[in-house]
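quick one: 6-phosphogluconic acid bound model?
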Amino acid sequence: DTYDFGLVGLGVMGRNFILNVADNGFTAFGNDLDKEKVNSLIEEGGDTNRINASTDASTFVNSLSAPRKIMLLVPAGKIVDAVIEGLLPHLDEGDIIIDGGNSFFTDTDRREAYLKEKGINFFGAGVSGGAKGARKGPSIMPGGSRGAYQHVKPIFEAVSAKYKGEPCVAYLGPKSAGNYVKMVHNGIEYGLMQLTSEIYDLMKKAGGLTNEELHETYASWNAGRLQSFLVEITSDILAQKDDLGDGHLVDKILDKAKQKGTGKWTSQNAMDLGIPVPTIDIAVSMREISALKTERTQADELYDRPTPEAIVKDSLVNKAEQALYFSFIITYAQGMHQLADASKEYGYELQLGEIAKIWRAGCIIRAALLADITEAFNGDNSLQNLLLSPSFVKKVQETVDSARELVAYGATSGIPLPGLSNALTYFDAYTNSRLPLNLIQAQRDYFGSHTYERLDREGVFHTDWE
Ligand code: 6PG
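yep, here:
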């Protein structure tokens, strides 16, 4: 009963995470039903004397020091409940279970309440950064009991990614705050991925850039204000040659994007809250449209598309950089807006500056922009939307015109830019004090006597329109 940390689920993420814990000087005990995974972990970590593992839940739990800190890195859903049930008979009051998966936030609330009755602390802690992040330093987003977090804090701070020496982990709030924040992180991830891919398409079709040129373009962007993990890996991806044939691998990959649901949950919950996140919505829809490959191929035969007029490369690359920067800002703005509202709705008491801060390194949406976003929210935690921050006005104002030009170009050329055009439309609507929804109110009142309010006097009105 001397091991500092326990981890259930020795898949790629779990195995990498536990090795990371041991690298940082802690002792850690792994658990998995699969004997092979247990043995290979002991083999790899054994010579450090800091790692051990077992397939047996009782041996596992009894190897841990009190209060036990047990992290689960297993697929979200029923498996989490099953693992918890398997551990429960062996646990003592005050022990801590941390779900590191992408669990749906209401599942986390249910589990937290259930375990609280038994005196067990439950954390939902989103972990971002993929397999490499888990091994070398992820961004960790924990929510649960603030008191119990103190026991986990030293380990999480040690294993997390560092941004200029600061750990990319912080206590975020009670209950499912951690899973909720990770869900919105993934929604933003979907948006940024959609945007990077459509800008790639545009530069190929409008400017005739080769993969090599695209690789260099993304690499040069990554050296500037667009510096981010997703831009960086896009540059790498565009350079990758195909092992199985000629040319570049990216050209051989089937254009059907899969999804595990976290982006969709972000959109669904934003709808429930009544907060618009259209760039995230469209990113989910585009994965759905992409999946309809057979229908798309059929429809492609039925309709003509304009032939894009070529744009001079340098000017295109320059505008594309601005448009991408603009639309990245809009995507973060939407996600942060959702978090601000969810915080009130669910009582998370989120500090948006803290969230942006722990996203600066380790996670999939890490970007230079997050340092500016951190500052904006640290300066004003009640900021509803990043677009209202004085520090963002100039960044947006300087880049929006390129977004306009490219969206117009995409529309006349038949190149779909759904993320970019959505970000632009959102911007134009959000920054407009007078929208035509007065007409919708009139229509609602016309056909359903739903009433309307007026600009010029107080009260609720109904008109007999006929
Ligand atoms: C991360 C990622 C990760 C997510 C994958 C796959 O932060 O490390 O968000 O948690 O599971 O990106 O998501 P999709 O399969 O839905 O694209």
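The mean pLDDT is 97.
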